[in-house]
Design goal:
The complex is a heterodimer of chains A (365) and B (242).
Chain A lengths: L1 H9 L1 H37 L5 E5 L11 E2 L1 H9 L4 E14 L5 E9 L11 E2 L7 E5 L12 E4 L4 E9 L3 E2 L2 E7 H12 L5 E2 L1 E5 L5 H7 L3 E5 H6 L4 H33 L1 H9 L4 H33 L10 H28 L11
Parallel strand pairs in A: 4-10, 6-8
Antiparallel strand pairs in A: 1-12, 1-13, 2-11, 3-4, 3-7, 3-12, 5-8, 6-10, 7-8, 9-10
Helix pairs in contact in A: 1-9, 2-7, 2-9, 2-10, 7-10, 9-10
Chain B lengths: L2 E12 L6 E12 L3 E5 L6 H8 L7 E6 L2 E2 L5 H11 E4 L11 H11 L5 H13 L15 H13 L5 E5 L7 H18 L2 E5 L11 E6 L2 E4 L2 H15 L1
Parallel strand pairs in B: 3-8, 3-9, 6-7, 7-8
Antiparallel strand pairs in B: 1-2, 1-4, 4-5, 9-10
Helix pairs in contact in B: 3-4, 3-5, 4-5, 5-6
Classes of the chains: A alpha+beta (365), B alpha/beta (242).
Chain lengths: 365, 242
């Protein structure tokens, strides 16, 4: 590192510039990844945070929870398969409702479950629903002005629900989730919407011993999917995440190329210098260590600065912006950025290895 | 006196078969402690190849080379690096200093390559810089030094690891005659004082009188004349070479 540090100090300008480019690329990478992460939970946090392994859907519903309708008898069928299986019904629908006394519409995703079951999330404020017309809602509805004790409902259907509790991080398809009793929900569907046959959207399974294939084999006219597949089945989820992931991948490839080319050009410029160094006895390994040292130092400092900048940005972003930085994602991308910069340095190392000490002799400049 | 650098019947042939080019032919040379030898010859005569082989940068096709009584004829490139850093001091043509190292660091780098660090190396570097008259410039980058000063740093660097043999490749090439002569004088006095063996490849006729022996290289063969004859013949020969 004797040479590496002194050269960085001597050529501050040129290494500063490449460092700045690295900071900008890494910064953008982290922001896009934070956005991808935030959108992902905005879209699917209810399923991701659900204590579940598999979902049973109607056959041919193509992994889409919203499309499925299972006869209620299916629940008993699943429960009888194996004593270890914990199965709970789930019904779901999207609604636009009014807050009582206001004319503004609010979009909600109704998830009807058993209030005492494992699908019920922990309550951060207020209490669990006890009566039929009581609901627990996602805390993001607070931003729309909803408080404990408020009522929301549908004027046309003539129904109103009372908010008795809040829960955190429960969103589906970018819409806040409202939890209500499934029994009440089924009655409501039959009474208000004229539904003839009672049905569930899905049966949620948690089991340590039974796997997906066994379930699929033993259930007729049903489709068994994992939690991950259910998340992917949310309308628009794959497309949204796919485009952001592609942007991140491109950024990382760009970072790799910028660094590789920069260090390669610098190395080419220094060929005769490497010749002299080798002639006075420097080994290739010594020169290589110094180059890798420079690359590593530059990459680590650039990534560290951009992590700081990313946290700065996340602090000034509005609350409603779906932006979430996970330490695991941040460290993954940091590691990846540092790794690609070292891979890029291999190009220069190869060139340094080829330099012959004889180039120092008889050289007329 | 000890023989520091010995070349015995060294041949160097580049390429093979029909395209083979003989660069050196039966070259033999012995340089003793405290001896300063000049190698002169026209371009293309094999001076660079000679220096590369004597400097453990290139292996000969046949023959034997001893540096500090150690046979270096058949070494791997790693081993040759070790020989160079410990036993050889190089002085090249102009601008062979590392541009981003201050004068003191130029010297410390060499001792670092030999695995020596710490106060002792720094002490030695300062001593050497004092002797070449550049102690007051030790925190300067090479770009701030004159051509003569740079060559003096290069000389100090060559002596840093206390090598047995000093090799110089046209050290006066980029200097005017006054500065060039001062640089070679410095080299000669250091070589004498420290008991090194030195070989200098040069075109510069003006500094030959500072050398103990002069050998001429021509078409890959080495000719040696007695010093007094050389001195007598110096003037007419200069016009031929010049």
């Amino acid at each position: 590192m004797f040479l590496a540090l002194r050269e960085l100090k001597y050529s501050k300008g040129r290494y500063g510039l490449i460092g700045l480019i690295m900071v900008l690329v890494a910064w953008l990478t982290f922001i896009v990844s934070g956005l991808a992460n935030g959108l992902s939970s905005d879209n699917a946090s209810i399923l991701k945070n659900m204590d579940a392994d598999y979902f049973v859907l109607q056959s041919d519903s193509e992994h889409k929870l919203t499309r499925s309708a299972l006869p209620v008898e299916k629940l008993d069928e699943v429960r009888q398969l194996n004593g270890d299986i914990q199965a709970e019904p789930l019904s779901q629908t999207m609604l636009s409702v009014y807050q009582t006394g206001s004319n503004k519409k609010i979009d909600i995703a109704v998830f009807a479950i058993e209030p005492e079951g494992t699908l019920m999330p922990s309550i951060t404020e207020g209490q669990n629903m006890a009566a039929n017309d009581e609901i627990v809602v996602d805390s993001s509805l607070k931003e729309k002005g909803i408080k404990l004790g408020d009522t929301i409902g549908d004027k046309d259907l003539g129904i109103e629900w009372k908010v008795v509790g809040f829960t955190k991080n429960q969103k589906f398809s970018h819409t806040p989730v409202v939890f209500m009793d499934i029994q009440y929900f089924s009655d409501l569907m039959q009474a208000s919407m004229g539904k003839k046959v009672a049905s569930y959207n899905s049966i949620v399974i948690k089991s340590d011993s039974v796997n997906k294939d066994t379930l699929q084999k033993n259930l007729t006219d049903a489709e068994v999917i994992t939690k991950q597949e259910a998340v992917q089945g949310i309308p628009g989820f794959k497309e949204e995440q796919g485009s952001l992931t592609m942007m991140i991948a491109f950024l990382i490839v760009i970072a790799a190329f910028i660094q590789a080319v920069f260090f390669y050009v610098i190395t080419l410029q220094k060929i005769s210098q490497f010749g002299v160094l080798k002639a006075i006895g420097a080994k290739t390994s010594y020169l290589a260590t110094n180059l890798v040292g420079q690359v590593l130092l530059l990459a680590i400092v650039a990534v560290a600065i951009s992590i700081g900048l990313t946290f700065g940005v996340s602090a000034i972003l509005p609350e409603s912006m779906p932006f979430e930085l996970g330490t695991d994602i941040l460290s993954q991308y940091s590691g990846l950025l540092i790794l690609v910069s070292i891979i890029g340095a291999l190009l220069s190392l190869n060139r340094i290895a080829k330099v012959d000490a004889i180039e120092a002799i008889g050289r007329v400049e | 006196m000890k023989e520091k650098l010995v070349l015995e019947n060294v041949n160097k042939i580049y390429g093979d078969g029909e395209t083979a080019v003989t660069a050196l032919q039966k070259v033999s040379l012995t340089v003793k402690e405290g001896e300063f030898v000049a190698v002169v010859g026209p371009s293309g005569s094999g001076k660079s190849t000679f220096l590369s082989i004597a400097g453990a940068l290139l292996s000969p096709t046949s023959g034997r080379i001893l540096i500090n009584q150690k046979d270096v004829t058949h070494l791997t490139s790693r081993e040759m690096s070790d020989v160079r850093v410990k036993n050889l001091g190089f002085i090249f043509q102009a601008s062979n200093l590392v541009p981003y190292l201050k004068v003191l660091d130029q010297l410390l780098l060499v001792s670092k390559l030999a695995g020596k660090v710490g106060k002792e190396a720094e002490q030695k570097a300062k001593e050497l810089l004092d002797q070449v008259g550049l102690l007051h410039r030790m925190n300067y980058y090479p770009e701030k030094l004159s051509g003569g000063e740079r060559q003096r740093v290069a000389i100090a660097r060559a002596f840093m690891n206390d090598p047995g043999v000093i090799l110089a490749d046209e050290p006066t090439a980029s200097l005017d005659s006054k500065r060039g002569r001062a640089v070679v004088e410095l080299m000669a006095s250091e070589v004498k004082q420290r008991g090194k063996a030195a070989v200098m490849v040069t075109h510069d006729e003006r500094v030959l009188d500072l050398c103990d022996r002069i050998v001429t290289i021509k078409d890959g063969m080495l000719y040696e004349k007695k010093a007094d004859i050389v001195n007598k013949d110096k003037k007419p020969e200069a016009s031929v070479l010049g």
